Every structure is written in structure tokens, then in C-alpha cells.
């Protein structure tokens, strides 16, 4: 893999996809999957200690998503002063057709399989409208979906703010800038006002990290980078040149968590600043990713592209795949022989993740995307559309 | 700067629909007669795993029900804590807690069969207490030192929500 220094952004993509963003998404999804995988079997202590990077895989996802969706919104919102509700509804239709079918598929799988039918649709109604963790702690049920909920609220609120600004007489470009500013400022303020640090650091994930209103700034930073890429190309190029700085800062963020905040007191201020800094740092890596060119190893390039393509299915389905793996071991009477051995368990689990994700991608995602694209035949910023699908 | 009324009306409508959906679902959740349910894996097992015969925890304002599919209670021998708080956490003192800690072995189970699976069901009634909040979980006392909590959940009656750590 090589990083082009001087080439403009558009040079580094093929067939409507930026290769570097596929790399970014592949790193993000594999961090999440491997982080959860290491919770199984009996990995080496040092290897198991790296599992926490799953947290940062999600942070990277947020920034990437903000960047891709931001680019789409920058293009589409230019027509909203004329299109108004038709424009925003088309945006939502495309997003929801992309994300909801598979979400609901795995939601029902979760109800029936993981919970053995113990829970019910009525008891989990909040999951139908993505309010399971809107401004309150994420429940344990289908807990994987906390990050998708944050994305869904971003898809809903961000364009709504753009339309509101347009309605108030702003130009689309200013409207996007206003929405970005609000997305960057409001969540830290809410973290400051609503977070009670007493004893909450032991449950930081359900109380803060997984709560929608506290985390929308993570995606906001990605949109900011999209805005810079569109309107401030020189700055975008400079950000790409600062890749080592952002990489070191990213490693610093990971060390900060791993080493328990470097011994800093667990205060409200820490929570307010920390999430913004992480988002800023990971968003700062996006320009570098856009400049990555395919490697000479065609097989590796294909692996990256394919993993990126099925990443949403992998994200929603990987825990189910682990579960299927364990059920398979039990049915074959080999659980005690295989599961404790990570050299056997991990390859089998990973194979099941790819198998299940491929199945759900080709059986559910792809046909629905085809149907969607047939109904909304638009061509706007084809790179971002292709990669955000 | 010229306002676009149609855009403002559209924003107001979309925001109202979203707010209504949130309020309805939250309201429904608070008044739901369905108990909240969680599957609690035994000590050392992850919540991301599906565990055969894991404890199903059902909780609502009426009480707590523990269901053990196939009556397999062998992995849940640690002591259970069940703390009932009758006043809000902002103003409560230690004396406001009702301690109902128990071992399964001391409790009587009812047997029931659902979908062909035999289960042992343990019930704890809350009706005597009018609780505001209930904390429950399991703990051990390594070397006699209190306490290593293996899992815990807190049920907030005002929110009808169950949170905690695996």
C-alpha cells in the first residue's frame, strides 16, 4: 500500500470507489470484529489486551460515515432550496433503504435466537424507532446497535438542521456550516450538563459512550472534513500531509484509554473533552486514507474491497456468527475440544463471519439496494454514493 | 435573507413526527405490562455469547422472576443480592435499602414447561415495598473480603429501564 503525496483526491479511486476509504472501513470493521472475537476462547494475555481497539474501530466508522454522508449532503443540499421536502425525503429514503432492512432482519434474529424468544417486540419497541439509547443508557438487549442508533439520528437530524437553515434564508453552504457547528458544540455541552461523574466511570460505556445525544459530535467531525475537502482543498491537502501527527495522536488516544486516562482524575471535564479529541484525531486521518492507492497485491486489494463492501453485514452479524459457531461445536459434540483453542476457534469464527455477512449481503442488502436505486435514479458525487451506498 | 416558509413547515412537521415517535415509545415503555427481560450468562461467560440454559431475568413493578431453562442452576450458585430502594437515589440513606439477599438453594422453585422446555422459576414479589429502584446481581467474597460482584443490574421504576454491567 502506498500513500500518494501530491495527487489530488480524485486520482486515488477506481470504479467509483476510493480505495483508501475501503481500507479505512476494512480497518474499522476488522477492529470491531477482532475486538469481540478476542472475548472468546482463551487468547494469549497480551493478544487479549489488544481487544480494546474495537472501541476505536467504531470511532473510525463514525468519522468515515460523517465524511461520506457529509459529501453526499454537500452535493444534494445545493438543490434543496428548490426541492425542499422532496430533497430531504429522497436522502432519508436512500439512507433508510440502505440500513433498515438488515437492521430489522438481525433485530428479529436477536429476538428469536439470542434471547431464546424470552423477550418480545412490545418490550423492545424502542428499537423500532432507534430510541433505545437516545438520551439514556443503552440496554443490554442487542447492545451492538448503539453505534447504528447514533448514525441513524445523525442521518435524521443533520439534514433537518440544513433544511432549517435554508428555511431561515441561508445558502446551502452556510446551512451545512451551521449544522456542523451545532453538531460539534451541542454534544460536549450536553456531556458537561448532564453527565454525573460520581461512580459513572465504571459504567462509562452505557452511560456516555453509547448514548446518542452525547456522541453526535463524533460524526460531526467527519462532516467537517468533508466540508474542508469540498471548500478548502489546500487545507485538506495539508491535513493529509500531517498524517504522522494524527497517527501518533491516535495511538496516544488508545494509550490514554488502555492506561486508565494516564492517572488523570475521572472528572466531568475529562468526559467533555475526551470524546471530542478522539473524534478530531480520527477525522484528521481521513484525508490520509483518501490518498491511499491500491497495492501491487491484487488479492489483498480484492480482500479489502470485499470486506468494505460487506462491512455493514459483518457489523450486524458477527456476534450471531460467533453464536452459530458455538452452536455448531456443541451439535458436533466438539465444543470442549475446539472452543478453548484459539488457533482453531478464531479461523472458524472468522470464516463464519464472512460466510454469514456474504449471505446477508447478497440475499438482503444488494437486492434492496438495487430496488432503491431503480426508484431514485440519481447520480451525485458518485464516489461517496458508491461507498456510502 | 429571505425565509422559505415551505422549508420551515417541512422541518416542523418532520421534527414533530420524530418527537411524537420518541414520546410514544418511551411512554409505552414506562406503562408496559410486559416485564423487561435479560439473559444473564453465568460467571465468566460473556454477554455476547448465547449460553445454553442461561438465566432469564424478568422484572417489572410486580416483582422479579428468575427462569432457569432445563432447571440448570449449577452455574448460579453464588449468592444473589437483591436491594430494594424505597426512596429516590438523590435523597436516600443506607437505611432506605431493604436487603433481600439470597441463595438459590434456599429458595423454592416452581416448575413450568414452555415450548417443550422444562424450566425452574423463582419469584420475588415487590408488592410489599413500593420500590423506586431495585439492584440485583450475584457476588462472591474472595478470602472473606466483600465483595466481588460478578454481574449486576439496576431497575429504575420511574424509567422502566434496566441497566448495569455484565
Shape of chain B, please? elongated
Order of helices and strands of chain A: EEEHHHHHHHHHHHHEHHHHH
Helices of chain A, by number, come to: 17
Biggest interface, CB < 8 A: A-B, 48 and 44 residues
Oligomer: heterodimer
**Order of strands across the widest beta sheet of chain B?**
1-2-3-7-6
> What's the rounded overall pLDDT mean of chain B?
78
Estimated structural class of chain A: mainly alpha
User: What structural class do the secondary elements of chain B suggest?
Assistant: alpha+beta
Task: Report the average pLDDT across residues of chain A.
Answer: 86
Strand arrangement, largest sheet of chain A?
1-4
**Which blocks of ≥5 consecutive residues of chain B have pLDDT under 50?**
none
Helix content of chain A: over 70%
The span between the termini of chain A is: 24 Å
Proportion of helical residues of chain B: 10-25%
Described by the principal axes of the CA atoms, the overall outline of chain A is globular
User: What's the total number of strands of chain A?
Assistant: 4
Total tally of structural domains of chain B: 2
Q: Which helices and strands appear, and what pairs or packs with what?
A:
The complex is a heterodimer of chains A (389) and B (166).
Chain A: E1 2-3, E2 13-14, E3 17-18, H1 19-37, H2 45-48, H3 53-76, H4 80-83, H5 85-114, H6 146-167, H7 172-194, H8 204-209, H9 212-231, H10 233-241, H11 243-258, H12 268-290, E4 292-293, H13 298-309, H14 311-331, H15 335-338, H16 342-375, H17 382-388
Antiparallel strand pairs in A: 1-4, 2-3
Helix pairs in contact in A: 1-3, 1-12, 1-13, 1-14, 3-6, 3-9, 3-12, 3-17, 5-6, 5-14, 5-16, 6-7, 6-9, 7-9, 7-12, 9-10, 9-12, 10-12, 11-12, 14-16
Chain B: H1 5-31, E1 36-40, E2 55-60, E3 63-69, E4 79-85, E5 97-99, E6 110-114, E7 117-125, E8 133-140, E9 148-156, E10 161-165
Antiparallel strand pairs in B: 1-2, 2-3, 3-7, 4-5, 4-8, 6-7, 8-9, 9-10
Amino acid at each position: 500500500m502506498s500513500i500518494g503525496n501530491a495527487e489530488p483526491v480524485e486520482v486515488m479511486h477506481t470504479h467509483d470507489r476510493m480505495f483508501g476509504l475501503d481500507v479505512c472501513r476494512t480497518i474499522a470493521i476488522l477492529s470491531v470484529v477482532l475486538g469481540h472475537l478476542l472475548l472468546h476462547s482463551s487468547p494469549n494475555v497480551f493478544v487479549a489486551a489488544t481487544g480494546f481497539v474495537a472501541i476505536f474501530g467504531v470511532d473510525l466508522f463514525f468519522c468515515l460515515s460523517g465524511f461520506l454522508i457529509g459529501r453526499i449532503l454537500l452535493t444534494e443540499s445545493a438543490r434543496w432550496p428548490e426541492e425542499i421536502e422532496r430533497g430531504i425525503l429522497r436522502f432519508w429514503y436512500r439512507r433508510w433503504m440502505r440500513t433498515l432492512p438488515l437492521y430489522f432482519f438481525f433485530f428479529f434474529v436477536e429476538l428469536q435466537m439470542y434471547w431464546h424468544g424470552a423477550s418480545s417486540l412490545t418490550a423492545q419497541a424502542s428499537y423500532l424507532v432507534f430510541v433505545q439509547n437516545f438520551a439514556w443508557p443503552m440496554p443490554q438487549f442487542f447492545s451492538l446497535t448503539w453505534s447504528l442508533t447514533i448514525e441513524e439520528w445523525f442521518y435524521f437530524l443533520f439534514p433537518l438542521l440544513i433544511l432549517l437553515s435554508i428555511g431561515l434564508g441561508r445558502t446551502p453552504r452556510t446551512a451545512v456550516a451551521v449544522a456542523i457547528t451545532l453538531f460539534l458544540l451541542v454534544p460536549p455541552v450536553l456531556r458537561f450538563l448532564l453527565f454525573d461523574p460520581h461512580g459513572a466511570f465504571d459504567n462509562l460505556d452505557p452511560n456516555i459512550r453509547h448514548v446518542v445525544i452525547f456522541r453526535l459530535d463524533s460524526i460531526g467531525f467527519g462532516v467537517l472534513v468533508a466540508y474542508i475537502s469540498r471548500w478548502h482543498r489546500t487545507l485538506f491537502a495539508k491535513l493529509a500531509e500531517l498524517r504522522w501527527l494524527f497517527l501518533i495522536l491516535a495511538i496516544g488516544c488508545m494509550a490514554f484509554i488502555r492506561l486508565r486516562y494516564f492517572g488523570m482524575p475521572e472528572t466531568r471535564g475529562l468526559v467533555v473533552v475526551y470524546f471530542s479529541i478522539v473524534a478530531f484525531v480520527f477525522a484528521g486521518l481521513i484525508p490520509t486514507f483518501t490518498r491511499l492507492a491500491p497495492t501491487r497485491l491484487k488479492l489483498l486489494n480484492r480482500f479489502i474491497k470485499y470486506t468494505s463492501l460487506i462491512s455493514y453485514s459483518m457489523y450486524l452479524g458477527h456476534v450471531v456468527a460467533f453464536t452459530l459457531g458455538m452452536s455448531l461445536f456443541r451439535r458436533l459434540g466438539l465444543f470442549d475440544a475446539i472452543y478453548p483453542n484459539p488457533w482453531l476457534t478464531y479461523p472458524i469464527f472468522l470464516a463464519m463471519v464472512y460466510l454469514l455477512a456474504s449471505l446477508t449481503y447478497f440475499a438482503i442488502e444488494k437486492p434492496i439496494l438495487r430496488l432503491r436505486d431503480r426508484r431514485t435514479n440519481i447520480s451525485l458525487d458518485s464516489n461517496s454514493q458508491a461507498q456510502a451506498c | 435573507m429571505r425565509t422559505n416558509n415551505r422549508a420551515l413547515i417541512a422541518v416542523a412537521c418532520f421534527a414533530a413526527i420524530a418527537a411524537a415517535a420518541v414520546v410514544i415509545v418511551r411512554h409505552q415503555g414506562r406503562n408496559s405490562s410486559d416485564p423487561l427481560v435479560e439473559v444473564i450468562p453465568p460467571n465468566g461467560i460473556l454477554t455476547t455469547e448465547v449460553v445454553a440454559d442461561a438465566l432469564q431475568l424478568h422484572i417489572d413493578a410486580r416483582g422479579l422472576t428468575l427462569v432457569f431453562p432445563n432447571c440448570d442452576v449449577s452455574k448460579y450458585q453464588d449468592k444473589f443480592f437483591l436491594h430494594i430502594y424505597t426512596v429516590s437515589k438523590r435523597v436516600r440513606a443506607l437505611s432506605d435499602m431493604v436487603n433481600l439477599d439470597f441463595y438459590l438453594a434456599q429458595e423454592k422453585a416452581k416448575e413450568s414447561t414452555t415450548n417443550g422446555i422444562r424450566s425452574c422459576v423463582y419469584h420475588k414479589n415487590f408488592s410489599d415495598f413500593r420500590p423506586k429502584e431495585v439492584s440485583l446481581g450475584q457476588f462472591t467474597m474472595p478470602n472473606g473480603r466483600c465483595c466481588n460482584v460478578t454481574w449486576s443490574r439496576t431497575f429504575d421504576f420511574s424509567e422502566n429501564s434496566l441497566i448495569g454491567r455484565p
